[in-house]
Amino acid sequence: MHREIEAALADGIGHFTQQYMGRRPKQIDTHLLGDFLVVRLQGLLAPAEQQLANGFGGEKGRDLLKRARASLVETTRPVLEALVEEATGSKVVSLHHDVSTVTGEGVLVFTLAAAPGVAASVH
Q1: 36-42: strand order across its sheet
Q2: Which of 61, 70, 86, 98 has an alpha carbon within 20 to 30 A of 38's alpha carbon?
Q3: pTM of this prediction?
């Protein structure tokens, strides 16, 4: 069951990045670990973003890129959460994200209310 969910998530996140960020990462790896979902996006940055991060603008360029990417994720967060909730059947409790300006790799980390296939406990 987890492999099917992970594959659906990789496909959905690929479509999401194409639609909202303008390009699909070269590789998307998804890993469900109980109520924890880790998504690794390799080859995430566009050539212009790589230039900004690796030369033009120096530290300011890297900071600008990180802020822009963070803003994009936060703005589209409801879409991402709906995608994850539909694939896993579990509500998203939190989302964390970052992008490496050195490698062009991004990560999305979701905490779910319950592991897929397990009913959420009431506190």
Answers
A1: 27-33, 36-42, 106-112, 92-99
A2: 61
A3: 0.89
Taking only the tens of pLDDT, the chain with its 123 residues reads 789 999 999 999 999 999 988 889 999 999 999 999 999 999 998 888 888 887 766 788 888 888 999 999 999 999 999 999 999 999 999 999 999 988 989 999 999 999 997 655 544
Neighbours of 32 (CB within 10 A): 21
The angle formed by the CA atoms of residues 41, 95 and 8, to the nearest 5 degrees, is 50
Ordered by start, the domain boundaries in the chain are 2-112
b/e per residue 63-80 (b: at least 16 CB within 10 A) = eebeeebeeebeebeeeb
Burial of 2 (0-12, 13-18, 19+ CB in 10 A): middle
Q: Which residues pair with 112 in a beta bridge?
A: 92
Alpha-carbon distance of 35 to 5, in angstroms, equals: 13
